[in-house]
Amino acid sequence: MHQKNKTLGEFIIENQSAFKYTSGELSRLINSIRLAAKVVNHEVNKAGLVDIIGDAGDQNIQGENQQKLDVYANLKFIQTLTNRNIVCGIASEEEDSFISINSQDENHQNKYIVLIDPLDGSTNIDVNVSVGTIFSIYRRVTPIGTPVTIEDFLQQGNQQVAAGYVIYGTSTMLVYTTGCGVNGFTLNPAIGSFYLSHPNMEFPADGKIYSVNEGNYIHFPLGIKNYIKYCQMEEDDRPYTSRYIGSLVSDFHRNMIKGGIYMYPKSSKMGNGKLRLLYECNPMAFLAEQANGKASDGFTRIMDIQPTELHERVPFICGSRNMVEKAEEFMRKYS
Ligand code: AHG
Ligand code: MN
Ligand code: MN
Q1: For ligand 1, atom 7, which residue shows the shortest CA distance?
Q2: What is the pLDDT of residue 1?
Q3: Ligand 1 within 6 A of 246 CB?
């Protein structure tokens, strides 16, 4: 069969044996994410036509204004994962604390927990610029059949079983890994199926794009400032091109295809940067490493950081391996 004719459903079945644990539960979980992605995609595409853009009038626990689509996407992902009785716990950017599923039922055997950023890049919704969804999947560490605890969610990224994102862009894609490389599937909206369009995605080892919010430049650590100057220098294959969408998913996706580096460093305004370790940085780091790239906080591998809080933030440098290593070199030199 020609690769582009392979649907996500077929791919999941074919590759089920490659999963670490082969009960079929993880396959069902990816399947339900696929379903929620289609539902959210449908709604995202209506933005502007119906009353879905704009502020929902509330703030999440991190003091950010929730957009209507943030709230909608959060609800749809949680509903899908809950209705199908697939996971035992969910944590979301839009929920203050984690949700325990079926905690009353001693017989429930679900072993996976999911962390999600239901809508990433939400400031871009109102202006018709690509947004995304990010997800991260772990096996619980507490005994099956008991209510999940915070311990199940505060695992190091290196324990992830699967991770991925959906990008609602010029076309809608689902890109994910179960630890055997990264594969990308494009939605055919006429049929409603995802097709394997980007098998074995990999970051080029080098790139020519740097993505950072330079509006924060004066607040950045010296290492980052000097690395940015290095990117702009007229030397060898530089200057690099600056591209910043402001949706992590979209910036990451472009950099993975073209070669590049994404940075959300700490700053004197935001001590740990902005991005959240558990449902933004860890899943993207898992994808990056599976795609031959690299993710670091400037000094340490993202996936080796021990989380202490559900919504904690961490400086994030991610992308083409040689570029990330160069940025780390600057961080070490000027720290
Ligand atoms: P979210 O919409 O889930 O809160 O995430 C937004 C994140 C990320 O997607 C993006 O790269 C970054 O925030 C942009 O932040 P700045 O506007 O500060 O550059
Ligand atoms: Mn986000
Ligand atoms: Mn979000």
Answers
A1: 121
A2: 44
A3: yes
What gap in Å lies between CA 49 and CA 93, rounded to an integer?
A: 26
Domain ranges of the chain: 3-198, 209-333
CB 281 within 8 A of CB 316: yes
DSSP characters over 42-104: HHHTTBTTBTTSSEEEEE-TTSPEEEHHHHHHHHHHHHHHHHTT--SEEEETTSSS-EESSTT
Could you tell me which CATH number the domain at 3-198 has? 3.30.540.10
**Cα first-last separation, the chain:** 53
User: What confidence score (pLDDT) does residue 131 get?
Assistant: 95
pLDDT digits (tens, 9 = 90+) for 2-43: 457 899 999 988 887 766 555 688 889 999 999 999 999 998
DSSP 190: T
The second-level CATH assignment, the architecture, of 209-333 is: 3-Layer(aba) Sandwich (3.40)
Regarding the beta carbon of 213 and ligand 1, being less than 6 Å apart is answered: yes
